[in-house]
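DM from R.C. (forwarded with permission)

"hey, sorry to bug you on a friday — could you get me a structure for this? deadline for the figure draft is monday and I only need the backbone to look sensible"
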Amino acid sequence: MTITVNVAQATAKFSELLSQVLLGEEVVIAEQGIPVARLVAFTNISSPRIPGLDKGKVFIAPDFNEPLPEEILSDFENSNLV
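My reply, with the result:
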């Protein structure tokens, strides 16, 4: 169900409206009869990260931090993308 209130009502009854939102209601705040905002419950779409979950799935080459070969560096230096 959707509850529609004007700005003054939303200001005066904000705590009560939050309680309604936590119960699953949606609150629309209108100004001069035109909806300007919607108050809905926050849903956490991501779950907490678990350390080590992808262990062994990522490979980093032993020469990762070594300078790039000259032929690759020259491609960057001669690029017209900048």
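R.C.: lifesaver. The mean pLDDT is 91.
me: no worries. Residues 41 and 65 are 46 Å apart (CA to CA).
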